[in-house]
Write a structure and sequence with these properties.
The protein has 183 residues and is mainly α. The protein has one domain. Helices cover 73% and strands 3% of the residues. Helix 1 runs antiparallel to helix 2, helix 2 crosses helix 4 and helix 5 crosses helix 6. It is flat, with a radius of gyration of 20 Å.
Length: 183
């Protein structure tokens, strides 16, 4: 699943929760500051992919006439171009490797800036963070669906895209994530 910026606060809280609850990690700073740094690192990674997507779109828009002339599949061209340009932007398109790299970046930053301390193998901490990301992603779809179903059962009909809908949806979504232990 592709990470989105709206997911980062939830993923960051999940990572922080797992770090705080790990008996092999000593937490040296406030939970909120750990969460903020995790969110910043996740957002930086997501922004790289957004920049890549914009560059690919721009490149393909410049070739629009040729694409139309050859009746090429735009989505397939987009993906092929994105794969070719990914290294330039520092984006790993393999999600498992990407989440591992993000986990490594978070662990390195938190350790180097004295947010956490540990005496176990680095891989154990990195795997804890990567598992937090993976667990969130697995539970995300279930929580999203459950929140949507609850909104549909409301007597007062909420219109998607309105402020009321977003407020209610986010509250229900967070409740479902809490039920699943993701935040």
């Amino acid at each position: 699943m592709k990470l989105k910026k709206q997911h980062t606060p939830y993923i960051s809280r999940k990572i922080t929760k797992d770090i705080v609850n790990a008996d092999f990690i000593e937490v040296r700073k406030e939970k909120n500051s750990i969460t903020q740094e995790c969110e910043r690192i996740l957002n930086e990674d997501i922004q790289k992919e957004i920049d890549l997507d914009e560059a690919v779109n721009e490149l393909l828009e410049n070739q629009e006439d040729e694409i139309e002339f050859y009746k090429a599949d735009y989505r397939q061209l987009f993906w092929m171009t994105k794969k070719r340009m990914a290294n330039e932007f520092g984006v790993n398109l393999n999600f498992e490797d990407r989440f591992s790299n993000i986990a490594h970046s978070i662990m390195d930053y938190l350790y180097e800036e004295d947010f956490i301390h540990f005496t176990v193998n680095d891989n154990q901490v990195k795997n804890l963070i990567a598992n937090s990301i993976n667990e969130f992603i697995k539970g995300y779809d279930e929580a999203d669906t459950a929140a949507y179903e609850k909104i549909k059962s409301y007597k007062r009909k909420l219109i998607p895209g309105t402020e009321d809908y977003d407020i209610v949806f986010n509250r229900l979504y967070e409740e479902e994530l809490m039920k699943k232990g993701l935040i």
